Structures are given as structure tokens and as C-alpha cells.
């Protein structure tokens, strides 16, 4: 089967023009079928502040009221997505920017209210792998913002890590899929204070032990849960690495 | 040849939720190959005001400084484009939202500074009809925001009427193209104060006379110049009509 790289970029990488440009050069140079998924939470928070709208987070997840879905639609679907596409086009990479609503790529349901009302937050229901395949096989590079829709006209805010693992797992019958999470750290660290302490190989058993000892905690947990889930569903490789290390052997390589 | 409708919607239609919804229902019901191009200037002005950024217009054209290109990228490329796509998807229309940067659809050059520096405003250089054809023939409905790029990484603000006529004329070798401008008025009026005074048929000779008498003036002139230009370049029909009259015989029908 042909290879497909599903690359997620987030965090501080999107905030600094030079870092983003270097990353996008590496991504453009990756000579395989590929899809880019981006976050953008920090920019959304900045715009909210400028507009005098309070940002509410619970366990690292953004409470998405009506004003906030408007802001993330502008920031994720517009600003970050289109700037990324324009930069990739300048590097000869034939990108097109999409959300889950475009081509009905990713449908979701509004998260049911239990203890917390997350507002317009979407949990992924279905990824349309046919439309994504058509684009990829036609030589285009989808750049996907973390927005989904409910098929009833409502856009929903969806976690970009989850979006990436959902898309990666939806493609496993058509491609040999690698999922690469790129961010500002060197990988999964055994000492969060030491960038040299990268765990280069991490299997599910070791992961449980790191969890029990508290070595791996907070924001890394959902990313790793998504990753092991993707491996279980047929994704061939999952790598968590620095944005500067895309297309190198660096970072943390996961296995079941 | 197969038919293709290139529909432009702008002005007050985009501002009112019910009017927009009715228009998008009519557009979804149009049972032909189709492309939608939208404006969004009023929303961009509103966001600029909320952010304390002054809006400068010269002859109805927006001076697009660095803050303003950020705003129009968020509003045109994000908010209006993605909301429109989500609504169309809810009506069973398989839309995808794009700018001229996506798939390298529309390249432009930054308008040279003569008397006025328009800033990041793009004049269309080339439309990639191959990519648009691929989407349309695959059953997708492109929804295009009035943003282009210079292929060097810079997004540019481009007049939506011009974007529509450029795209329409680029498709004439592959499709039998109709270009429909939809807005809040009933068509080209012989008396601007009277919505019943629609000029139902307008040829180029009559247009010159209406221009000379001052009956047709200001914002209608570039729209009509674009329209007659498109007819000259092989577009079969150009219609200027109310958003509620899409897919009816109403409005102003142009001929050379």
C-alpha cells in the first residue's frame, strides 16, 4: 500500500513566524502523500482577549459558547488555515485548507452535557475517507483545521489531536498510515525539565508504568491515549516529536 | 457542453441569518454544476470596529493594511466561508470552502502603488480551471472567498465581483457558463428609488446610454463592466438579480 503521513502541528510552533516557516519547509519537503492538521488555541485566546471575551478552560478543553465558536471559526478555519496554505503554496506544496464541514469530511455530535457544558464542542462521529483519498491521490495536500460539523448547520470545536488520530485511523484501509504529532518539545520526556530525556521507544506497557509513577501527566495523557488507540486501529507508526525533527529519526516512537 | 452556474452573493444578504438561509436553500436547490463566490465587507468592517482598527475605503475599495488582511482572512476565509459551507451541508449540498490560495486556484499580484496604496489588494493573474473542474465534476460545490495569493506566501484581498467574473471566464472552454450576481436589490434599476424599475434586458449599447445619462452610477459600474467583459470572453449568460430570485426569470439579463 502507498504511504500516507498524517501530521499534526500545534502549540508554540504556530505562534512564531520563523518556527512555523521552518516546520512548513520540512513538511513541504516530505516526499510522500500527506495531510496536515493544525491547532491554534493560543491565537484564539489572544483574539478573545482583544475582543473582551473571557476564555474558559476545563481540563485543558475550551468551553465554546456562541462567541467562542465564532472566534475559533475565524482563527482556526480562517487565519491559521489560510496563512498555512499560502506559505505551503509558496514552497511548491499544493495545499488546500479545509474544516470537517468541507466536503462533509468530519461529522460530529455536540458533546452531551454531563457535569460540564462544553458548549459547541464536537465529538467525532465519522470521517469521510473517500473525499480525503480523492484529494490525496489527485496530488493535493489537505490542511485541516480542528472544526467539525453536526450536518445540521452547526460548526463544532474539536480537539486537534483527536482530529488527527480520527483521520489517521479512517485512512488505514487505503494507505499505510503514519501519524506524527509535532510540537515544541523533543518528544515524550522522562524528565519534563530536561529536553534530553526523550523516551525514544514507548510501548503500551511502559506507558502504564510511566502513568502510575506520574512521570507522564496532564496534557500528554490524551495525546498518548489517542496515539495508542490509533495503533490499535491499524495506524502503522505513531511518532511524537519536535516540529524541527519532522522527517528525522528523532522523537518518541510508539508501539503496542 | 455541461452547464455551470457561477453565483456571486454579497451585500446585505450575508448579514441577515434568515435572508442568507433562504438564499442558500435556493442555491442548494439549483440542480446544475455550480460554484458560489461570496463577499463579506460589512462583517469585516464590524470586526475592525470591535478591534479598534479604522476602516479606510477609496472609491468603494478597502485599503488593506497588515491588520486588515488579517481581519479579512478571518472573516472571509473563516467565518463567512465556513458558516456558509456548514449551512449548505445541512441542505444536502456537498460544499467545500476555498480561497484563491487553496489548490493554487487564483493567483494575483499585489496592486502596484500609483496615486493610492491599496496595500494587500490583489489583481487576478490566473485562475486554475483544472482544479475547479476536478471538484465540480466530482460532485463538489466550491464556495470561494474573495482572497487570492501571490504564490510567495502572501494572501491578498480581491474584489468578490471580479473574482466571480474571473472564475466564470476561466471555465468557458469546459462548461456552458452562466454568471449570476445576487444581492439585495431586484436587479439593475432605471430609478434607484424604485425596486419595480428593473431593466429586464440590458445590452452594451443601452448600458452606455444609461451611463451617459447618470441613471447607472457608482457601485453598479464595476459590476456591469465585469459582466460585459465576461460576456465578451465567452460567458453565455450574465444575470444581476435579487438573492430571492436565484433560479427564476427575474432580474436584469445582459447581452452584448
Task: Give a quick summary of the entry.
The first copy, chain A, is an alpha/beta fold and 256 residues long. Chain A has 7 helices and 14 strands. At the A-B interface, helix 3 and strand 5 of A face helix 3 and strand 5 of B.
Describe what this molecule looks like in 3D.
Two copies of one chain form a homodimer. Chain A is of the alpha/beta class and 256 residues long. The first copy, chain A, has a single domain, classed as Acetylglutamate kinase-like (Carbamate kinase, 3-Layer(aba) Sandwich). Chain A is 36% helix and 25% strand. Chain A has seven helices and 14 strands. In chain A, the strands form four sheets. Chain A has an eight-stranded mixed beta sheet with strand order 5-8-2-1-11-13-14-12, sandwiched between helices. Chains A and B meet through helix 3 and strand 5 of A and helix 3 and strand 5 of B.
Write the CATH architecture name of chain A. Answer: 3-Layer(aba) Sandwich
Approximate helicity band of chain A: 25-40%
Whole-number count of domains of chain A: 1
Principal-axes shape call of chain A: globular
Q: Which segments of chain A are poorly predicted (pLDDT under 50) over 5 or more consecutive residues?
A: none
